Amino acid sequence: MQLSSAESTKIGALVAPENILVATDRTDMEFLLPCAVAQAKASHARLTLVSAITPGDNMPVDSPGPYIDMAKVMKDITNELNEHAAAIEAQGVRCQVCVAFGLAADVIGGELRKMHAGRLIMGTHGRGKLGRLTLGSVAAELLRTVQVPVFAVGPRARAQKLHETPKNILHPVSLEGNFRSGVQFAIELAVANHAELTLMLVLNRNDKSDVNPERSLEWGRTALRSLLQGMDASQLKTNVEAVFGKVPEEVCRMADEMSADLIVIGVSGVIPLTSLTESTAYKVLARAECPVMTAPHEAKMNDAVRERHSELTGVLAESGY
Question: 74: Cβ–Cβ under 8 A, 6 or more apart, which residues?
């Protein structure tokens, strides 16, 4: 699979980001931090722990009155995150914290832009009252609007033992839109983690009416193999799978069957709010028993990442590439 030098440079910047944001309600640190530290070490990135103090989430149910010492709330949360940051830095990873008042999606989105972050790590179901992330609200909004890869631990995945570094990666391929950039992202991510990569194509159930369904499946496998042409087998072990069915169900089934540590799924452009819950990414995240990482479409890259890409592309041009 051939991409231009500029496209490869853009993808490389997202595979190995300089800054990674970790959105937390502080009840999810046990399973988020090992993954965050491992990813930061892999790309020598700085971590930023972000927690939002959301209006309405700070009043105890049995509160006798309206007064809450918000300065104390801010101080307590900041101190708690600073303790985590100190433990992270003791492992050789740079880390800072951000605690802010406001809607969680706004706070997280603002910090992503401020830090020029190239990745967001988050859980989708928190247990805490403060800054709670739920798949139906904050996480859903971030999946819809965030313009960098999102590493998300869904409701079923958080109950499993998560591997800090993925060794088996599954990437469902749509063969629509700018799918090649998503494939390249999955390939480079697998190479960076020394992981085995499986490309998967799910064909519509109606295709079973074909005279020879196996012919359709073989066509699918051949199409996937063509995307891996030129890959060095010693550098990356790959597999291809083609099946009939519905994408969310088949992707999650395959992930379970191959004991995937990570599902990398493409997100084509900005998902309309009205259709978010019907999107494949949303459905896979809700059902998967392993983390899911979104592979961003060109249209979802933010201005900060674009600027860095432009700089890197300029260097390539000056070097004759």
Answer: 53, 99, 101
CB 41 within 8 A of CB 72: no
- 197 - beta bridge partners? 169, 238
Separation between Cα atoms, residue 134 and residue 88, nearest integer Å: 25
DSSP assigned state of 45: P
What pTM, to 2 d.p., does this model score? 0.81
Q: What does pLDDT average to over the chain?
A: 80
Closest CA to 291 of 171, 181, 142, 152: 152
What end-to-end distance do the CA atoms of the chain give, in Å?
Answer: 18
What pLDDT sits at residue 39? 93
Query: Measured on CA atoms in the order 269, 241, 140, 143, is the torsion positive or negative?
Result: negative
**Coil, strand or helix: which one is 97?**
strand
Structure tokens at 10: 């853009």
In total, the chain counts a number of residues equal to 321
Tokens of 294: 């979104």
Say how far apart CA 185 and CA 41 lie, in whole Å. Answer: 19
Q: What is the C-alpha separation between 280 and 115, in angstroms, rounded?
A: 29
Residue 125 DSSP label: B
Secondary structure element (H or E) that encloses residue 265, with its range? strand 262-267
Q: How far apart are CA 253 and CA 255, in angstroms?
A: 5
Burial 24-56 (b: 16+ CB within 10 A, else e): bbbbbbebbbebbbbbbebbebbbbbbbbbbee
53: enclosing H helix or E strand: strand 46-53
Query: When comparing pLDDT for 41 and 298, which is higher?
Result: 41
Q: Which two tokens stand for residue 64?
A: 């006798």
* pLDDT single digits (tens) 133-183: 555 577 777 877 788 999 998 878 876 777 778 999 999 998 877 788 889
